[in-house]
What we know:
Blueprint: H1 3-16, H2 36-44, H3 47-51, E1 54-57, H4 64-72, E2 76-80, E3 88-91, H5 105-108, E4 110-112, E5 121-124, E6 128-130, E7 134-136, E8 153-156, E9 162-163, E10 172-173, E11 176-178, E12 183-184
InterPro entries: FTHF_cligase, FTHF_cligase-like_sf, NagB/RpiA_transferase-like
Organism: Thermus tengchongensis
Protein name: 5-formyltetrahydrofolate cyclo-ligase
Amino acid sequence: MTLGELREEVWNALARYDLALHPTPPHGHHPNFLGAKRAAAHLLRTPEFQRARLILAGMDAVLKPLREEALRQGKALILPHPDRPGEFVLLKDLDPRRLKRVREAYRYGVRVDLKGQPIDLVLIGAVAVDEEGGWVGKGYGFPQGWLAVEAPFATLAHALMVYPKLPVEPERRVDLIATPQRLIRP
């Protein structure tokens, strides 16, 4: 199996069983899925999230509850710039209700360099993960392959996206995987 075939397998299963939420179809995305808010609730209770003061987060729809709660709790967020690959925007002291569309983050934040930032947690979307912490993304965009941050990486996944062991080489490792039913700590 190739990375592309694995992605198609997951996207097709989510679509076939009506488990994908906006944006649909899930193809080409880190899917938003039925139960994502329950999965986010598991992650919100972790010590890693609770202790985090500065969070690097992807812009995927599935991560919206995590980004909003981080801002509600007074945490600072770094997001990738929506139109400039490799650029990042820092948001702090922002009411999450003002950020109607995540693509508008650049209006409320300031450009920052990731180097030297004391990032405590990284939130990323996923297409597939495994029980050992293997991760496969959508194949482009955030998180970039070169992204090296010394902080735990966390993601949300539907049970259909979780494999005992990925049938391909993982693109990276994650430290926390929250599903609607459980929290996986590889």
